[in-house]
What does this fold into?
Amino acid sequence: MRLKIILTLLVFVFVGCNQVNKTKVNISVLPQFEAIDSQGTKIVSEQFSNSPLVVVFFDTESILAWRTLSEFEKVSQKQTNPPTSYLAIGSTKSNSLEQASVNSLKQEYKISFPVIVDAENRFSTLFNAPDCCDSVFLYDVQGKMAAAKKLSELFSKADSFISPLTETKQANDSNPENKSSDEENSASANKTDFINALTVKTERGKTEPIPLSKQGLTLVNLFGQFCADCATGQRLETLNSLTQNKNEKIKIIIIFSEKHFLEQDVENFRVMLNTKLPLSLGSIDIAANAMVSGRLLIVFNSQGEVVWQEKATMTEEEIMNTVTRLIG
It folds into this structure.
């Protein structure tokens, strides 16, 4: 009888272990998530879909951790195209964790990228971070993990950690045949060059930069040309629906290429769709190669950095759902 009980317990333990393994989180790919950072800004995984991403799990009470974050901040300012995004997730081994103190330290160490306060360790579980507050994950543009290390091992070594995703770019830049001028290389390193190259024409005919939302996100839709499958009207209906969002910090701007559209074309669209959306002519040459069937929707943050843009494989419904979730 005693032997039978022991065997039964062993079977139970074995089956239990198998069930745990089946539900183990896969950290080889970037998990889907959404959260509010320490400054009240909504963060969703989709906004990192167009760039490599460094996710840092750190102890908010560790000075070394904050200093290492500042090293990543310095690296982020030097990044070539595509720029690497950074996300810090702060926890603590004690029970006290206040967003006010996190923001104070964030300001002290001059950290510009978002910091999420993980008071309940939800993100540690989601990412299956092996050690509380001491992990760094590097994901490529496809969301696949490229590297993982302890944060405590990376002080003064932030450059080397992201090198797996920058070596190709550096090798190309070292080849004189791939360089046209020093000015072009420095321009490609500027994260805001894309937004700076987009302009709109005012009602008085003046050319001005795109007026970004100062506190929230700006949705900029570009129309490159007339074409049979561009579905311009369908896109304008999507944007019209997005205006129903109650977030007053969100701004929507629509630009038609001044090379392929006339002011009368823009006015006709406005009348036919009975829309109050801001429709303008403008210069959009920098986005010509990124157009998807003659159009392109891009989401910028208040600094003019691209946080999301549509992909060729996305349906209009998928775009609507993704952007709705992004702007909250």
User: Anything to note?
Assistant: The longest strand covers residues 53-59. Residues 2-22 form the longest helix (21 residues).
